[in-house]
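debug: dumping io for the single-chain case to check the tokenizer round-trip. Nothing else runs in this session.
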Amino acid sequence: MKLHGYFRSSAAYRVRIALNLKGLAAEHLAHHLRKGEQTAPDYLVLNPQGLVPTLEADEGAVLTQSLAIIEWLDETHPTPPLLPLDALQRAKARAFALAIACDIHPVQNLKVLARLRQLGLPEEKVTEWAAWANREGLAACERLIAKEPGPFCFGEVPTTADLCLVPQLANARRFGVDVSAFPRLLQAEAAAKAMPAFADAAPDRQSDAE
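debug: decoded output
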């Protein structure tokens, strides 16, 4: 398999964690987002959106969108499972993951922040926007799992929810958010980061880290 990504991309970070948890090897191909390498014509053939990650499977299939890639990995390599066994808890874990991947992450990603700069917002306002998006979204996520058993988001083992949470907390810190306001999220993060699968997927462990 080949994983196209970038060390700082939280979406690619999610997939790196999933691959590690499944014990799957992949060739990691970096596309420098700040240099626009994701819009190169040869990459757009693979991913017309010009986003990362993109996964090239061994049989030649090309998959895009991190949650779709993670779901495919979970279905084709079911051990360990990345969703709870109980149907209700599976729905809750999916909802939590989607809250991050669809509602928080998109409005503070590089493409959106670049557009804000193009519209003339000063850099401090751009950073404030990204911090606001993280703070508001993570506050809701804190409430979503406030009564769920730990130490992970939904119990004693990591799920897709944790795969999305850990990279998003890293984003929040990068934009200056005080994450101490989210003790339940930090509990799940601490449990996750104690696992090599999460630690080895961190941005500072990647060969393209700058």
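debug: round-trip ok. The first strand starts at residue 2 and ends at 5.
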